[in-house]
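Re-running the complex after MR caught last week's input typo. The corrected sequence lines follow. Everything else is unchanged.
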Amino acid sequence: MNEPSTFNPAAIERLCRLGGEKFAVEMIDLFFSYGAKKVAEARQAREAGNLTALADAAHPLKSSAGNVGAIHVQELAGQLELSAREQKAELISAQFNELERAFAEARLFLESERARLAQSPS
Amino acid sequence: MNTTDNNPQTSTPKPVRILVAEDSPLNQQVALKQLEKLGYAADAVADGGQAVEAQARTPYDIILMDCQMPGISGYEATWQIRNREQEKAGAAEAGRRVYIIAMTANTQADNREKCGAAGMDGFISKPVQLAELEVALLHALADQAATKEIDEVIDPVIIAGLHQLRTPGKPDPLVELIDLFLREAPAQLDTMSDAVAKNDLSSLSRTISAAISLKGSAGNLGARNLAALCDEIEQAVKTWMMADVQPLIERAREEFSRVRAALERIKKG
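Corrected-run output:
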């Protein structure tokens, strides 16, 4: 699960240096809530066949994922956004499913990071 | 200054007004924390419409503008802010130009050319790195300092008015006016100096003519200090205060050097 190309632990360390462990935990929590919202919006847009809305949901997910080191989510959200903007409907389903899986994996990884940070003395 | 992530900023925030326009709450919080680390206080909004409204309420010095936001995008918001700045300048209100730094996720939909065309001044990639943000802010502050320097010499309202005379496909009248002024002004200053040195009646008349002419052309370009000095020269000659005239001409030459430097920068845009 914790493959180097999937997650970038340096991003969490950077958040800790920036604002402390508490801030890093807050950002992870924000990623959980905001990321889940954007994945849900992307799902709805896909089901409605609205590629513009799909791209608009994938776009902020991409940059938010980068801030917590969820590299795989970042890459897949970028690919999904591009496919949606270029109206490549045939690629959307597979890319979205992969993104959902990557987001679930990122949650697991970040849950463990969160638990570690929450135990750290701030 | 080389601030690192380990170098907490504890002093009073720098007196620079910054707005962060970013729809992702995570990116927004990280940007605010980075700015805090660099010693800046900032406000934040979540879309382009709010950014336009916030800038209308509070004249920010710098806006960190996400390009793709729901509703009004960062591009559209920038365009609206620039339009409002132009309108204010045209209405002779105190016009100031906010420095806008694009924050982009580097996609085909948001790139440097598009940011520049929308009226943005700087460009940083997301996720934003602290060092990159610091450099962009230093560029912004240097640019604003240079603008302030120009504004002390040339009235920005006059320049904004002349900018509005531009017609697509035709030579820029502002550039033509500047070139003409820079060609003629040194000769007019020389005429004044030579005439005062001769100190006869016809020479003094030439001094007055040159002073009036330079006053007019300087005033047309918003070079208010130079225009005022030319007026002083004219009045001094007319009232036979001849001891004052040469020092005034020297001051006018010094002011002309500042005006020339400012106008050259204005020409470069």
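None of the earlier attempt is carried over here. Residues 2 and 109 of chain A are 7 Å apart (CA to CA). Chain A is about 85% helix and 0% strand.
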